[in-house]
């Protein structure tokens, strides 16, 4: 029986690695946790509560599915802290061994490699960024950062919805700095990469090397900084990193889905640091900019697009630059495979799905503005973990409207509303759908006192505010 459990445990470990990827498996399971399988339970033993909380928040559902599919029966998954798993520090640490540890510290992933060390560049450049009225300020701020060795404003914080060019600008800044100032030290990575690298450095006793490498940079660009919400240890580590770079007069550039004050469960110190720099919102491009993006991309792939096709794409595909480029590439692929020229009739046929879904776009920020005004709360309340009745009700309606009026998934909505779990968004939708089905009375405390309104009337007024 013990041999059977050992075989099943090995199969589960292999399935976990395949499901979440080798790097995450190495960081969070192989180097950090120990699996124990019994007749009714899979116990994941970890060295400390930080790792335990991370596994519970990010991998628990996957673990339950893996155990069921691998063993053929449902088992309870339990995460348990076992201090005996903490590895003792290495003895006999001399200067030579310390230098060795520093030199063998965890290496940043290749897509985040510094150009002076590895001769690599990132995908996007500022030369390929199409500037329009909605992103002109963001682009000019990027140029200002490149032109000054001493930071003109710190940090430069970009925020906006998906596919509006935040990642393009961050990577473009890094590439431009490398070109304008050869030998400068820069790094681009996501907040998730930052977290994973920190945990790996902590686990392998090479934290000092990790910190030195980041804190001696000339430019640090971190994408999706909202990923740090509700991760207190990571926030503190990043705050120290930011302060070190800032005190040296160097540059930090950040990107997020939301304004710093709208990122729930972010420490007040970080929020204050973020808003003390330059915060720039990037809006989706207007019609003329979308036309120029289409022409630029067509020119890059050397395909001749008729003007009426460009105008159709720019008029109908408005959600994001990513969707616009995806529609364009789909059309190019069809024309190439069918050996035909791109025509307006072809575009309408091939892109019917894109065009049919191109209703006037509603952004989550529009929904949030309508909800906070209607219920008399603040945007930070909406993104916070607070659960009093008024805020909880407003948050539920906001999540329902986000699901109803946008193409965001449950995880995307949760992530953009303060790092909430996707299950929270699902439950909020069910709650509002039940209220609407019964047309139940909704009560809340507004600025002028207690208020009550039927659920359908609440929804109608919110929809009217969003569309108006």
Describe this structure in words.
The protein folds into four domains: 2-85, 2-Layer Sandwich (GMP Synthetase, Chain A, domain 3), CATH 3.30.300; 110-124 and 131-281, P-loop containing nucleotide triphosphate hydrolases (Rossmann fold), CATH 3.40.50.300; 287-356, Helicase, Ruva Protein, domain 3 (Orthogonal Bundle); 364-467, Chromosomal Replication Initiator Protein Dnaa, Chain: A (Orthogonal Bundle), CATH 1.10.1750. Helix 1 crosses helix 2, helix 19 crosses helix 21 and helix 20 (410-416) packs across helix 21. It is of the alpha/beta class. The chain has helices at 2-20, 22-30, 49-71, 95-103, 115-118, 136-147, 166-180, 191-203, 207-215, 232-247, 268-275, 287-300, 307-316, 321-338, 344-350, 352-356, 364-375, 379-383, 389-405, 410-416, 422-438, 455-467, and strands at 33-37, 41-46, 76-81, 156-159, 186-190, 219-223, 251-256, 278-281, 441-446, 449-454. It has 22 helices and ten strands. Helix 10 (232-247) links the parallel strand 6 (219-223) and strand 7 (251-256). The protein has a five-stranded parallel β-sheet with strand order 5-6-7-4-8, with helices on both faces. Strands 1-2-3 form a three-stranded mixed β-sheet. A two-stranded antiparallel ribbon has the order 9-10.
- What is the overall shape? globular
How many helices? 22
CATH superfamily of the largest domain: P-loop containing nucleotide triphosphate hydrolases
Cα-based radius of gyration, to the nearest Å:
25 Å
> In order across it, which strands form the biggest sheet?
5-6-7-4-8
Please report the total strand number as a whole number. 10
Task: Output the structural class.
Answer: alpha/beta
The averaged pLDDT comes out at 81
Instruction: Look at the structure and give the CATH class of the largest domain.
Output: Alpha Beta
The largest sheet, given as strand count, sense and whether it forms a barrel, is: 5 strands, parallel
């Amino acid at each position: 029986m013990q041999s059977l459990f050992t075989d099943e445990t090995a199969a589960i470990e292999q399935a976990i690695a395949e499901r979440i990827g080798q790097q995450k498996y190495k960081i969070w399971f192989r180097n950090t946790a120990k699996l124990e399988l019994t007749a009714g339970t899979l116990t994941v033993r970890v060295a400390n509560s930080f790792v335990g909380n991370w596994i519970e928040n990010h991998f628990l559902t996957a673990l339950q599915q893996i155990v069921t599919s691998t063993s053929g029966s449902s088992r309870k998954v339990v995460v348990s802290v076992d201090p005996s798993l903490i590895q003792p520090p290495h003895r006999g640490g001399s200067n030579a061994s310390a230098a060795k540890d520093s030199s063998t510290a965890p290496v940043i992933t290749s897509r985040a490699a510094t150009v002076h060390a590895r001769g690599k560049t990132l995908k996007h450049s500022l030369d390929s960024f199409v500037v329009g009225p909605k992103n002109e300020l963001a682009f000019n701020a990027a140029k200002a950062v490149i032109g000054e060795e001493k930071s003109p404003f710190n940090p430069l914080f970009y925020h906006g919805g998906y596919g509006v060019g935040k990642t393009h600008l961050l990577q473009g800044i890094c590439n431009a700095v490398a070109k304008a100032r050869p030998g400068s030290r820069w790094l681009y990575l996501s907040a998730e990469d930052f977290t994973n690298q920190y945990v790996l450095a902590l686990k392998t006793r090479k934290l000092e090397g990790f910190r030195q490498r980041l804190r001696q940079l000339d430019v640090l660009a971190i994408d999706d900084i909202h990923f740090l919400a509700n991760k207190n240890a990571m926030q503190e580590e990043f705050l120290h990193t930011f302060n070190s770079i800032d005190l040296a007069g160097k540059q930090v550039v950040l990107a997020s889905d939301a304004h710093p004050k709208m990122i729930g469960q972010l420490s007040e110190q970080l929020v204050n640091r973020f808003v003390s720099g330059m915060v720039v919102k990037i809006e989706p491009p207007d019609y003329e900019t979308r036309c120029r993006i289409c022409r630029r991309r067509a020119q890059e792939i050397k395909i001749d697009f008729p003007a009426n096709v460009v105008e159709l794409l720019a008029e109908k595909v408005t959600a994001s630059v990513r969707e616009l480029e995806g529609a364009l590439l789909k059309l190019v692929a069809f024309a190439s495979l069918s050996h035909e020229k791109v025509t307006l009739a072809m575009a309408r046929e091939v892109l019917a799905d894109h065009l049919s879904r191109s209703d006037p776009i509603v952004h989550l920020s529009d929904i949030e503005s309508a909800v906070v005004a209607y219920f008399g709360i603040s945007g930070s309340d909406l993104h916070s973990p607070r659960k009093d009745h008024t805020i909880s009700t407003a948050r539920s309606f906001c999540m329902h409207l986000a699901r109803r009026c946008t193409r965001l998934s449950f995880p995307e909505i949760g992530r953009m509303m303060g790092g909430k779990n996707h299950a929270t968004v699902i439950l909020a939708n069910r709650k509002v759908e039940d209220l609407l089905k019964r047309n139940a009375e909704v009560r809340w405390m507004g600025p002028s006192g207690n208020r009550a309104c039927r659920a359908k009337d609440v929804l109608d007024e919110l929809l009217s505010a969003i569309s108006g």
